[in-house]
Amino acid sequence: MAKKIAVINDLSGFGRCSLTAAIPTISVMGVQPCPLPTAVLSAQTGFPSYYCDDYTEKMEHFRQEWEKMGVQFDGIYTGFVASETQIRRIFRFLDTFYGESTFLLVDPVMGDEGRVYKLFTPELLRRMKELALRADVVTPNLTELCLLTGADYGELGRMKGEKEITEAAGELAEKLMESGPDTVVVTGIRFEDAQSGERMIGNLAVDQSGRRLSAFPYIGGSFSGTGDLFASIIAGGIARGDDIFRTMDLAGEFVERAMKDSAAEGVERNQGTNFEKYLGMLLPGR
User: Fold this and answer.
1) Tens digits of per-residue pLDDT, 107-116?
2) Can you tell me the distance from the alpha carbon of 235 to that of 101, in angstroms, rounded to the nearest whole number?
3) Which of 64, 185, 26 is nearest to 18 (CA)?
4) Secondary structure, 3-state, 81-92
5) What angle do CA 229, 172, 86 make, to 5 degrees?
6) CB atoms within 10 A of CB 72
7) d(CA 161, CA 192)
8) Which of 6, 47, 59, 110 keeps 20 to 30 A from 88, CA to CA?
């Protein structure tokens, strides 16, 4: 029987992000994604205009109906959260479905490039940190790692070398692990290669066994949904029982190929990446 992951995130018609990224990615890995939408949007919020149907009050109906069905989940994976009320709904969901045989992966979508997203009030940030500390695995970028640990992003942002920035990120990840998560995968670490001077971007996985950096040439720019794709592969790999470091390598390579393809075709960043043609990379046994 296929493993099941409850995926709590929004559904956007355009933008290749959130649930439209998570569902095909987790499915092709041989794991069943069970979506719990927090909102339904005509397009992701980076577009100049979009319609949003807020599902905050409907989230509890999903929990109640799934509880009636007696379903069990091997994993629970949360992404973008838009309000304190949604986090309270997630905590209620965890009270029902999160047990000893279930992992919780939190992708703490709070900001990027040293900036916090506008909707994140101090109270919402506090509640997101509380959610992250309950997780088994957290996948923050550097900005979010600083928000979760109280560190100064400006100091990390000035670091250019691989050794110094990965050492600093690793120490912050271990600090976060002291309060809750067993594994932290820090995404989007940019640095210059010491030998060639080439710009690189990497991901750093930290658990009780140590640290591992996986890096690729930085093509520049960004695309909608790459963080969702990465976190979804991590979640699918955990459900399959795959090694976390190998899963991180796979996720990084998958996202890199999708970004290169999209950059070559001149895809506009809000449209997301051409990831569909690379889904075969994620098949079990590959």
Assistant:
1) 999 988 888 8
2) 14
3) 26
4) CCCHHHHHHHHH
5) 50
6) 11
7) 6
8) 47
